[in-house]
């Protein structure tokens, strides 16, 4: 089923500028060179996909690979490959799922916690340098607005997903 159409009318100039800024931030933060520099500073030899998975594991309770894939919006096979890489470095381990002994969950090891702490610290140091001229109040406001925006994005995504599952299938 095709996605629901966008609301009628043009976007406000303010929303268009926010989208433009987010696109620029995303580009800057996902460039290969920026990632390599961050990994060098952190001393962690992982690619971007593995770091994204490591962050997700660090921010949650142990979960099944399929749950990780859903949270990251990727295919399960992608998570399987990344988990294997993270296991090779000793950053994650597989543990039995207490709800189903046949299944496994992925959890962070102490080495994995140290690695993600180093990645986050290196990222925070770089951000601190970039935002050094901002006041504490400006930083507080920005953080609050970013959290609010992410919460609203998630709520919108959940509403859209619910609509997709409750709307009857259209036939041509």
Topology, pairings included?
Elements: H1 13-30, H2 32-42, H3 48-58, H4 65-72, H5 76-88, E1 92-97, E2 100-108, H6 110-130, H7 136-166
Protein name: MarR family winged helix-turn-helix transcriptional regulator
InterPro entries: HTH_MarR-typ (IPR000835), MarR/SlyA-like (IPR039422), WH-like_DNA-bd_sf (IPR036388), WH_DNA-bd_sf (IPR036390)
Domain HTH marR-type: 15-151
Briefly summarize what is shown.
This protein is mainly alpha-helical.
User: How would you classify the helix and strand content by structural class?
Assistant: mainly alpha
N- to C-terminal distance: 11 Å
Task: Give the neighbour order of strands across the main sheet.
Answer: 1-2
Q: Could you tell me the CATH topology label of the largest domain.
A: Arc Repressor Mutant, subunit A
What is the domain total for the residues?
Answer: 2
What's the mean pLDDT score? 88
The count of helical stretches stands at 7
CATH class of the largest domain: Mainly Alpha
Organism: Streptomyces heilongjiangensis
Protein name: MarR family winged helix-turn-helix transcriptional regulator
Pfam families: MarR
InterPro entries: HTH_MarR-typ, MarR/SlyA-like, WH-like_DNA-bd_sf, WH_DNA-bd_sf
